[in-house]
C-alpha cells in the first residue's frame, strides 16, 4: 500500500451539496440508494472519481439516465465516471453485507442492532462517495426496515417523516440541516431501552436528550445522562458554545472499536463509556464516562461545526477536544490529581510512541492507513500543545482565540494552522516558533544547569534544548517551550521571582532558542528550582537534583504535579541503580520522606494516593535507550518490598481509618477509596497473609465494584491465597455480563503466576470471551502483553508467541484492533537480547501473512524497517 502525503493535498475537484440516502436494512443484503447533487469545482475536465470498498454495484444514473458499463469503470477501491457535466444529479445503488462486516467499520451488526462507524474512511463501505472531510453535504436519510425488529431507526438531525410501506416495512426519514463530511454520518437501528431527559440552552431553547441502551440496562444510564447535561452547561459557561439541534441522541453498543463517535446529533458509544452503576462499575469507569461523554459532546463545535480539511489535520479536532474534556473533568472533580493522571499517560505511552518506529508529529506528514493515526501523539500530545497555548496566552487570551476561530471558520473544513493563526491574531502573540510542535516528532529534552552567587544574591538558570532524531525525521529545530518556574528555599518556602527576563502569567518562561539563561535577583540562599510546574510542556527535563532537593519539592511544593514528579524521580533513580547493580537499597532519608508523606494528615487523599505510587514499568522503560527487562522488574520488586515494610504500620492504620460505611460517588469518597486501595497494595507487599484477610473481607462486605475490584486486583497482583476463590466467585456472579467480565479478563491477562500460560488458554475457551468483540479481546490480550511484564517477556519467548497468534487471528477479523494490540511487539528495539530477537522473529512471521491488512503492513513494516 502506498503512503499519502500531506504535501500532496489538493482541494476536491467535485463537491456534493446534497445527498438523499435510502437504506433498506437486511443483515446480509442491505440496499443503499444514494441521490447526490454533484458540482464541479474549478476549471478542469477530469472525471469524477468516487471512493468505495466492499460494495456490490447495482446501477449508476446521471440526471435520471442509466449508465451502461461503458459509462464508468470500477476497481476494488474506486468508481470512475468519465463523462460528467458541471452540475448533475448522480444516482447510485449498491448492495452491502453488514453481517459479514467484522471490521466494525462502515455498516455492521452489534448484537443484532445495525450501526455505523464512518470515521475515518468507513463511509466508502456504505456507498460510493467523495469520502474526504472537506466535502460537506446536507444529508437526508431514509431507513427502511421491519419496525417490530427495529423499533428505533435513527440517523443524524431531526426525524421528518415516518411511513408504513405496503410490504409491511416502515420508512423513517431524518434530515440534518448542517452540511457535514460523510465521516459524521450515522445510522442505528435496533430495539433499545430509552432514557429521555431535556436541557434548556443559555438562549432558552429546549433540547431533547435521548440515551439508548440495550434492553434491561436502564439502571446503568443515569450517570451518562447527568454527565451530558454537565458538559452542555460547561461549554456554555466556559466557551459560550450552545448546542445547535433540537435533539441529541447517544446510543450504547457492545461492539465498537474505540471509545465513542461524535456523529452529528447521533453519537454512537462503546457501552463501556455509558453503562455504569455502583454495583457494576468502578470510580475509574465513572470518570471515563464523564470524560468521553464530555469529549463527544464538545466535538459538536470542535470537530463538527468546524471540521478538518484533511486527515493529517486530525489533531485540530482531537487535540483540542481532549484538552477541552480534560479541563471539563478538572472542573467537575475540582482536583489537581487529574493533571497527574494525564501526565502519566504522556510519559508512559506517548513518550514511547515518540521514540518508537511509528513516531509522528501531532500533524503527521505521511500516512498509509489513517486508522493507525488515532494515537496518543495526535490526541494526548495534541492536547498538551493546545494546553501550552492556553498557558502562554492565559485563559482570557485563549478564549479570545477560540472566539475568533469560530467567527472565521464556522461551517468550514480547516487546518491546524488556521487554529494557531486565530490564537495568534486574537492576541497579537508571536507563535511562529511554536508551530514547530505541529511539524516535529520526538520528545524535546531540556537540560538545565544553575549557578548561585552568594555575594550578589543572584541565581542563574542555563537552559539548552535538543530533540533527538526520530524514526521519521533526523533534523530537528528548537521549539517554543513554556517552563513554569518556582524557586524554593531549604524550608520549602517559595522565593519571589525577580528577573529582567520576560515571564508570562504564573511565572512562565518561554525557551525559544537552543540555549538561553535567566538570572533571578534577591535570592538569599541557594534555591531548589521547580522547572516544569504543572508539566507546562511535554518534554523531558534534565537537571541534576540532589536527593535532598527532590525531597524538599516532594514535601513542600504547592504544585501537586511537581510533588509527584519529585518522588517519581527519586524512586526511579534508585530503581535504576539497583537494576544496574550499583546499590541494593533505598537510602533511609528517602524511606523516611515517603513515610512522612504517607503519615501527613494535611495532604488530601487523592494526591496522597498518587504520591505513594511507584514509577510504572513503561515510564521507566522510556527513560533509557535499551532495557534489560528482568533486572529492571527485579529492582522494582526490591524497592517495593523495602518501602512496604517501612510503610506497613502507617498504611494499615490509614486503611482502617479510610473505611466508609456506604458508597458515595463524590470526590472525597472517591479519593478515600483510591488511597485505601493504595494502602492495601503496600500492606500486601509487606505482609501477604494480612492482606489476604483484608481482601477477602473487603470483597465480601462491599456492595460496590470499586472496592470489590480493588480487593480482587490486589489478590491477583500479589497472588494471595484467596486469589482463585475470589476470581471464581466473581465469575459466577458476572459471567453473563460482558462489560463486567472485561475486568476479570484483564486480571487473568496480568496474573503474575507461573500458571499464567495454561490459564490464558483456559480463559480463551470461556463462552463470554469473543475475539470478535474488541472490549473482550483488548481486556485479555492487552492485560497480558501490556501489563504482565514478567510473563510477556518470558525468557523462552512464549509470551511473544502467544500475542503473535492472537494478532494473526485478529488480522482477518478486525484489522484496526490487531494494529492496536500488536504495539508491545513493535517496541522490540528497546530490549536487549534475547528478547529483542524473539520479538522481531514474531513480527517477521506476521509480516509474511498472505492476507496481511494495510493496518498491520504499515505498523509491522515500520517496526522491522
Ligand atoms: N472521533 C472518534 C474517532 C473514532 C474512530 C476512529 C477510527 C476508527 C474507529 C473510531 N471510532 C471513533 C472518536 C473521538 O475521538 O471522539
Ligand atoms: Zn475525539
From TrEMBL:
Domain Aminopeptidase N-like N-terminal: 20-184
Known EC number: 3.4.11.2
Domain Peptidase M1 membrane alanine aminopeptidase: 223-437
GO biological process, one term: proteolysis
Necessary cofactors: Zn(2+)
Record-level Gene Ontology MF annotations: alanyl aminopeptidase activity; metallopeptidase activity; zinc ion binding
Domain of life per record: Bacteria
Family the UniProt entry places it in: Belongs to the peptidase M1 family.
UniProt-listed PANTHER family: PUROMYCIN-SENSITIVE AMINOPEPTIDASE (PTHR46322:SF1)
Name the record gives this protein: Aminopeptidase N
Organism annotation: Neiella litorisoli
